[in-house]
Amino acid sequence: MSNLTIGMIVGSLRKASFNRQLAQALVGLLPSGATAQFIEIGELPLYNQDLDANLPEPVQRFKAAVAGVDSVLFVTPEYNRGMPGVLKNAIDWGSRPYGQSVWGGKPAGIAGASPGAIGTALSQAQLRNVLAAVGVKVLPLPEVFFHFAGEPFDAQGGVTDARTRQFLQGFVDRFVEWAGQKPA
């Protein structure tokens, strides 16, 4: 693997969200040769097909950012047993207008954090279904349902618990290896 660029899309808009903290910790575990850039989704208007012929500027920036990375790592919360509407909206914009999707064949990974007992399992399952519909290739395993309890990250975004750090490092290493593979 050399020079893999990963777009980080966080499904929560809250600046100090658990998922943004998890995303920053995952970035801190990237090996050399892999870089990450956060792709923000908070400025995207609600998807409206009437705008397909003249995409709003935030949509153009978003699509260009996604098109410019080799892979995407989605870090999502779970709201009411599903993925956040803002994340679904971003995926919809990326897939439109018809024939101009930025998603097709893009490798992706999914992780999520929640203080809830089941983590983000249902949100991630829903996200996998939506990503399959737009042609994204999602890393099958390992899955990261991060139970956010206590203070899992230090002030610099590092993981405080050695076992958790080892697990997250294994996920990052596997994702980077998988996303960096060239299609046969």
UniProtKB/TrEMBL annotation:
<dbReference type="Pfam" id="PF03358">
    <property type="entry name" value="FMN_red"/>
</dbReference>
<dbReference type="GO" id="GO:0050625">
    <property type="term" value="F:2-hydroxy-1,4-benzoquinone reductase (NADH) activity"/>
</dbReference>
<keyword id="KW-0560">Oxidoreductase</keyword>
<dbReference type="GO" id="GO:0005829">
    <property type="term" value="C:cytosol"/>
</dbReference>
<feature type="domain" description="NADPH-dependent FMN reductase-like">
    <location>
        <begin position="5"/>
        <end position="149"/>
    </location>
</feature>
<dbReference type="InterPro" id="IPR005025">
    <property type="entry name" value="FMN_Rdtase-like_dom"/>
</dbReference>
<dbReference type="InterPro" id="IPR029039">
    <property type="entry name" value="Flavoprotein-like_sf"/>
</dbReference>
<dbReference type="GO" id="GO:0010181">
    <property type="term" value="F:FMN binding"/>
</dbReference>
<dbReference type="InterPro" id="IPR050712">
    <property type="entry name" value="NAD(P)H-dep_reductase"/>
</dbReference>
<protein>
    <submittedName>
        <fullName>2-hydroxy-1,4-benzoquinone reductase</fullName>
        <ecNumber>1.6.5.7</ecNumber>
    </submittedName>
</protein>
